[in-house]
């Protein structure tokens, strides 16, 4: 899992702690830490067992030497089973619990095995192994009763020690699970951050593509119309040819300026506080229509809004883009036709933009201009984000109609 994923920086591995297993632990090579812990546990179990046997031997009525020797031999051999407590903790703990019924030497090793079970197994398994340990200690107390302690006190002491070992092991298990959970949350949060960054990049690319389409498609369609006029009228007077060429050059320059300004606006960070190009609004629609007329497109415009400049910025900008896209599509797909633009509405009633045009009539620019086919899709997304709706299609009268409804709060 990546520890850190910041654009422009390298990634570093972040090792996670191994999750606490609930089943048999797979065999693996012991690390240096495992070797130290295992050897320490073995030496501690042997030393503690010898101390217990020594205390028993020092009593006024010690057991027979043969029993003591057998206890040390069997207990010492059983203590070697701790080496496999990582792979089979339950089996080792139960084996030591059974041997603990007869051997005092194995008691510390049995507690270490019980601790391992408490760390690596479910509570139900831990309680079962703990009960087996208590049963083994009770049997040992019956077979070899202590002179200065009653059977009840021996059992109570065994319960207290077993409960302490189990509680300690389960506390370590809970802490390990908590650490693993926190690490997983951190990794998941970083993964989600990577997804958010990637989504932001995708959104920005989509925004750039939309702005480029809205700005350049309109400008380049005008440029194509002027160039087409030069192509279809090669015998025009030199003055008209020069004028048309000047319009083509001016349109190309304006397209480049629009491209530079759009990219500049999109690259600017909100924190930079730089000057950005004012976005067009509803008040700029008449100028847009007039620009299309100058390019040769026949447009009838009707404005049923008392004050075009009073429209909200989002509503006005969206309405402008709707008219711009509609007129661009008319120049591409229905050259020579007459487009009708109607903008009506007001505060409280909403804003309606309706653009109609008949099918293409041939003539100049009979070859339709190429298009990406995504203009209406992007326009629908823009109108939807503004809280409005968009409808388009052919009417019964044979006209293509594009209608956008946008909110205009009172």
Automatic annotation (TrEMBL):
Q: Which Pfam families match?
A: DUF7134, HisKA_3
Catalysed reactions, as listed in the record: ATP + protein L-histidine = ADP + protein N-phospho-L-histidine
Q: Which GO terms describe its molecular function?
A: ATP binding; phosphorelay sensor kinase activity; protein dimerization activity
* First-tier enzyme category under EC: transferase
Q: Which residues form the DUF7134 domain?
A: 32-176
Q: Where is the Signal transduction histidine kinase subgroup 3 dimerisation and phosphoacceptor domain?
A: 204-269
The entry's cellular-component GO terms read: membrane
What EC number(s) is this enzyme filed under? Answer: 2.7.13.3
Task: Tell me which domain of life the UniProt entry assigns to the organism this sequence originates from.
Answer: Bacteria
For the region Disordered, give the residue spans.
Answer: 1-27
Q: Which CDD domains match?
A: HATPase_UhpB-NarQ-NarX-like (cd16917)
Ranges that cross the membrane: 35-58, 64-84, 91-119, 125-143, 150-171
The UniProt keyword set, sorted, is: ATP-binding, Kinase, Membrane, Nucleotide-binding, Phosphoprotein, Transferase, Transmembrane, Transmembrane helix, Two-component regulatory system
Protein name according to UniProt = histidine kinase
